[in-house]
Amino acid sequence: MATALVTGAQFVSPIFAAQTQARPQPVAPAPIAESPAMETPVVETPMVETMETANNPREVECVAKVIVHEAANQPRRGQIAVAQVIRTRMKASDTDSACDVIARPGQFFNVNTYKPSRKTPQWRNAMEIAKATLRGEGAEVVPGAMFFHTAGYPMRGRQRLAQIEGHVFYR
Predict the structure, then answer these.
(1) Separation between Cα atoms, residue 5 and residue 15, nearest integer Å
(2) Lowest mean pLDDT among 28-32, 71-75, 90-94, 115-119
(3) Is residue 61 over pLDDT 50?
(4) CA-closest candidate to residue 26, choices 166, 161, 170
(5) pLDDT surpassing 90 at residue 77
(6) Structure letter (DSSP) for residue 5
(7) Less Cβ around it within 10 Å: N or C end of the chain?
(8) CA dihedral 111, 117, 119, 123 (to 10 degrees)
């Protein structure tokens, strides 16, 4: 697959693209050694169904709140992977609303009552990641991930895909 900096009609910033192309740590018992000659597989993501979601401040804020609450202490690609779980669930569901996906019972937390400070670098970073993810920018960090959980608390019945620092991602 070819790596592209343009997805549909949207420009993907080279910084965001470079950060999302990093390969997650393998979680298999025997880690796969990477050599400089190995190419990192890139899964291009199609644009979200409507640009309304990507341009809706409420939708972006819902995703940013999840990033801050669930992954502020994680590396950037872990934060991107968390946002991409939401995007993947949007594609697999009957809604094009990130807020609807996040608000489903037993999935995340009540984003309506969560009030993180908007004056921190973590918030600005989360907003940037949320906007880019909802626009469909960047390569998938953990392709196919539909769930994530704190490392050390396995999700029985789910296929483990990768671990990025303190989160394990599942299908």
Answers:
(1) 10
(2) 28-32
(3) yes
(4) 161
(5) yes
(6) S
(7) N
(8) -40
Runs of H (alpha helix) within the chain: 14-20, 51-55, 57-71, 76-92, 98-103, 121-134
Tell me the helices (H) and strands (E) count for the chain, helix number first: 6, 5
Got the DSSP string for 133-157? HHTT-S--SSTT--EEEETTS--TT
The pLDDT assigned to 54 comes to 75
Strands 160-164 and 167-170: antiparallel
Backbone angles phi, psi at 46, to 5 degrees: -70, 160
At 118 the three-state DSSP class reads coil
Going by pLDDT thresholds of 50, 70 and 90, the confidence category of residue 31 is very low
Q: Record the pTM.
A: 0.71
| Mean pLDDT, rounded, for 152-161 | 94
The token pair at 75 is: 């590396």
Gyration radius from the chain CA atoms = 15
107 vs 1, residue with greater confidence: 107
Q: Whole-angstrom Cα distance, residue 137 to residue 18?
A: 11
Question: In the beta sheet, which residues pair with residue 127?
Answer: none
